[in-house]
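User: New here, please read:
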Amino acid sequence: MRKPSTKDNARHKTRFPVLCLLALCIVTMAVPHAWSQQRQQPRAAREGARAKHVNRITPQIPSANRYQKDKVFLENSDKLSADENVSTDYQVLKGNVRFRKGDMYMFCDSAYFYDKTSSLDAFGNVRMTQGDTLFVYADILHYYGEDQVAQLRRNVRLENRNTTLLTDSLDYEISSNVGYYFNHGTIVDNKNNTELSSRYGRYELDTKQAEFSTDVHLINDQYEMNTNLLHYNTATHIATILEETYIVSDSNTIVTDNGWYNTSADDATLYNRSQINAKDGKTLVGDTVYYNRMRNYGEARGNVVLTDPNNQVILDGDYGYHDDNSHYSYVTKRARAREFSQKDTIYLHADTLCTLVNSDSVRILRAFNNVRFYRNDIQGICDSLQLSEADTIINMYRHAVVWSDNRQINGEEINVHLNDSSADWATLPNFGFMAEHLGETYYDQLSGKKMKAYFEKKELRQLDVDGNVLAIMFPQEKDSTYNKMVNAESSYMQIMLKPKQEVDRISMWPEVSGKITPLYLAKKADLFLPSFKWYEEYRPHTPDEIFDKTEEMRALMLEQEGNRRHRNR
């Protein structure tokens, strides 16, 4: 072998740098081409297709099975091309592009198609159809065959029978028929004329159930609903309320955080201390509230509170009802009314309490069965009662008893007129009996067919008795003792009193009979008139005591009814 010469070594040293420079140029040219190829990959190729290698499309013959599971078929394209220098994963389709997956068709102006993974990117006039029930429109579609998920972007519209979904970004799971939006969307229930919008949403095409979250807004012809979480069924038109929700209309505002609202029938059943606020200020609150907007009435159960601030009345109980058309409300079961139009509040209990407006547009409060009421200066019981807003008169019917200080008045009917913070007069038109406890077993007593009493500063000032007057009185001596008893009878009587209940004058006419008996000679039976009965045990001494003695009250009313029938025989 010939030994390399000095000339050969020089030539070799010159050739090696040239070869290195040439190799560097080739690498520099190749890398940008690869980067360019990667940048030009469409979205499905980069994110969704995930195929290791996809061959060029092999046309399907017309007789091929078009219902292969999860397989997408290319049905039509005016132009099909591929650039192996860019990618071997997909084909480029242009003009009247149509795909088929089972009974679903997908249309567009152009697309990238990944046959191996049944994935595609579609652009321009994108449309998806399934039978005659589902139509989806968008500007862009990315379909991932392995996940069977269609991502639709820009101007998305999904139509499912009478329901339309509008959004800019929709992910549709074809296998489960469920669509999601996450950048604000609106569902329009065309049949029910209801529009629902939210930031995030989910719609099940098979069950017609939709879920809305964050900034949820429902618009109807009659009202608007605002919340942050709501379920709605486009078939039943029922909205299920899951978080604090405000339902606003021209007539009222409903506040609730649990329940359902039938937007078609326009009625609702609400839970968790829901509240209805009417435009006129009335409110209805209860553990469970039912409301029908068409009939404009509501019902409530459990700790019900019905407030009427304009008429200064609060009704509460275990069941309540309010009809806004007739201005009629009532409560039952541990029912109570608080009337605060005067300086002192009247606390009233009965089996049933109601408020209404009569033909003269006067607000009236009525109580039925086992009535008991309390106010600082006056307390009472009866079978039924009416309080009129116009003249502030308490009308008490059947076995009525009224107390004021140590005085008790009872009769078949008692009418008490309230002026400011106290009663100023009272009438007993059908038999009256008045007794005042003086101490120990001594009671001043008076009975007659009719009575009228006048009060001043919570004290009795005048008493007029008309017909069959019977009286027992115990005059007080100067040393404040009692040592004699006066019995008297007449047809008419008038008693005038000074402040501190000091008797000023007693007048009886036209004929008077009676006697004076020393107490040491009086028998115990002589100390009382035949109709005397002291009902102190039934008297409420605090606002809460109006709920006491319920069963005893029923027994008393039955006893009094028997006595009345006996007297009338």
The helical segments are 6-39, 43-48, 550-567. Residues 322 and 329 are 4 Å apart (CA to CA). The domain at 362-569 is CATH 2.60.450.10 (lipopolysaccharide transport protein A fold).
